[in-house]
Design goal:
By secondary structure, the chain is an alpha/beta fold. The protein folds into two domains: 2-85 and 152-257, P-loop containing nucleotide triphosphate hydrolases (Rossmann fold), CATH 3.40.50.300; 88-149, no CATH class. It is 39% helix and 22% strand. The chain has helices at residues 40-47, 70-75, 93-98, 109-114, 116-136, 152-164, 182-199, 210-216, 234-238, 241-248, 255-258, and strands at residues 2-11, 14-24, 29-33, 55-60, 63-64, 78-80, 170-174, 202-206, 220-224, 227-232. The strands form two sheets. Strands 6-7-8-3-9-10 form a six-stranded mixed β-sheet, with helices on both faces. It is globular and about 60 Å long. The two termini are 33 Å apart. Mean pLDDT is 88; it is low at 250-260.
Amino acid sequence: MIRVENLHKKFGGFSAVDGASLRIETGSITGLIGPNGAGKSTLFNVIAGVHKPTSGRVWMDGEDITGLAPHQLFHKGLLRTFQLAHEFSSMTVRENLMMVPAGQTGETLISTWFARHRIRAEERALRERADEVLNFLTIGHLAEERAGNLSGGQKKLLELGRTMMVDAKIVFLDEVGAGVNRTLLMTIADAIVRLNKERGYTFCVIEHDMDFIGKLCDPVIVMAEGKVLAQGSADSIMQNEAVIEAYLGRGLKNKDMVSA
């Protein structure tokens, strides 16, 4: 689905992404790991159109999408979440979801005068879809809660719910487990697996929790210093000397520390 070739992204003289090449296969849940500063989030940002690459190309389903803006990629089904949730805190959880689909009739002033029946019908449909999404994510009881009052894990579920309000093909999840308690993290993992198996979503996940990555992701891609260092199953990655060196700066004798 996604092919990245020789991608570079420089900020001044610093190469955040330095010649990365990788593939994300349709229907996979691909993990992206690496030490802090490896270039993972920058790679996500370039693929998702937040940053333009210095050089290199990105393809999606055979189409060159290099440098397209986030809203253009949104319409192609490529979505990205962030380490910190970006909810509308003063709106309800349901309202946050209802805002997601683009091109709603009520977005234009003239339609609010002459297309009120259509607007009401759209709002009913969006409300029903939002409630379906919330129930799928097991947070239907929070529909009327202000989004700003949610816990960190609940906000991550809300971010995931936003991707379900449109026809997403691939979702890039950036540190979905950051600040999330273990119980909610497993709820998020279950939702990701169900979306993958039941609705055909493809995922690419940045995460530092190796237990989470090991249970959820295959394959796993490792980045270090802006480059792709290794790719394979979680088990093979954990045995890779270069990966252990990148994380710990030591040899295989410390490999048990990686899984600790």
